[in-house]
Amino acid sequence: MLRFGSRLLKTPTATRGVQTRFASYQNVGFGSTDGSFEKDRLVKAAGEENTREFTYFALGGARFVYASSVRLALIKFVSTMSASADVLALASAEFDISGIAEGTTLTVKWRGKPVFIRHRTADEVAREAGVAMSALKDAQADSDRTQDPEWLIVLGICTHLGCVPISGAGDYNGWFCPCHGSHYDVSGRIRKGPAPLNLEIPPYTLTDGKLVVG
Fold first, then answer.
1. Active-site option among 119, 160, 180, 183
2. Which DSSP string do the residues of 106-140 spell out, in sequence order?
3. Does the annotation count 119 as an active-site position?
4. Which pTM was predicted?
């Protein structure tokens, strides 16, 4: 019954029906609709060790091994398409140096790199042999850089940033790299500028006016 002003109103029967249905729903259990839920569920006992971390570790390790295997296979495939170290080591080039006049430099190419062949005069040989080791940034005797004192064979690549130096230039009349001002003497040794090392000497042999580089 509800009071409205001085009047009493009866509660509709529909309201009582809703209340009855709600009460009946409260007594119904809403379980899982999956009949296999209780049968297949794994129930962990109290205090049982958790294996989730091990599962994550195992999966991560398997993925790492798989990625490493793919990487190694790719590296092996690429390496088969390029020349081996043995093949490159056997690559050589022969040059006739009998026509190079004293005091001049001939530039040739070996493995795509410039090679300076300098036919030195007696004065140049004597001057370079007399340089004190204390005056050199990369100390190396002239005799250690030549097989025959008259002939100097060096790679024409500046040891600073890989530029090609100009022959017969610089403060020491050897080679000069205009990129950053490195000066080399007629023994190919760095004497001034930012280059840290002497010009590299390639493997070579001299026989009867022939030069074989490589």
1. 180
2. EEEEETTEEEEEEE--HHHHHHHHT--GGG-SS--
3. no
4. 0.59
